[in-house]
Amino acid sequence: MRPRHIPSILQFTKTIWLQAAECWREKQHTAVVVDGTVGNGHDTLFLAELVGERGHVYGFDVQESGLANAQERLETAQVAEHATLFHAGHETVADKLPEGTLVSGAMYNLGYLPGSDHAVITRARTTIASLQALLPVLMPNGIITVHIYTGHEGGTAEGDEVMAWSKTLSWKEYRVGRYDFPNKEINKEHLLVIEKL
């Protein structure tokens, strides 16, 4: 049984996003967020419900089956009008976002799409390109959460490169946090959180 007082990475991620949404509401801010890895749309739905009727989610994925599942999930929850899904890699984010868009936050779950071809995975090169492209359009106090999985081939290498990239971000401009379980030996995972000052 999972310890009651230490949240899972998914729980901790949602807590961070709920706190961010509270700030949006206090400032009466219309939130625009990015789901960099739509998958089957679980996070996309979470984000669409979080941004509310005035906000919008832009989602990216390279697998049509996942996007179809995500679209169906959004339509069932009656929030599809608050999301735009792109059949494209997240490295195209700067080209796909409407010109002048400021982003309140972005969420990434690296690795592969559950229930699909495990050979189709996110890669450090495109992940870092996407993250780098988002930084200039991220609003002050905007957040980026990156859930790094290492239990698949290529996962550790991608995670190491993304972590190394995050260490290059200026302390004067960003805060970078990390949450993980140091004693988890199999399928280690990490949460990287970036906040723009």
UniProtKB/TrEMBL annotation:
Q: Does the keyword field hold Protease? A: no
Record GO biological process: methylation
**In terms of domain of life, where is this protein from?**
Bacteria
Which molecular function GO terms apply here?
A: methyltransferase activity
InterPro entries recorded: MnmM_MeTrfase, SAM-dependent_MTases_sf
UniProt KW keywords: Methyltransferase, Transferase
Q: Which residues form a coiled coil?
A: none
Per its UniProt record, what Pfam families does this chain match? rRNA_methylase
Which SUPFAM superfamilies would you find in this protein's record? S-adenosyl-L-methionine-dependent methyltransferases (SSF53335)
Q: What protein is this chain from? A: rRNA methylase
User: What is the originating organism of this protein?
Assistant: Halodesulfovibrio spirochaetisodalis
Species lineage: Bacteria, Pseudomonadati, Thermodesulfobacteriota, Desulfovibrionia, Desulfovibrionales
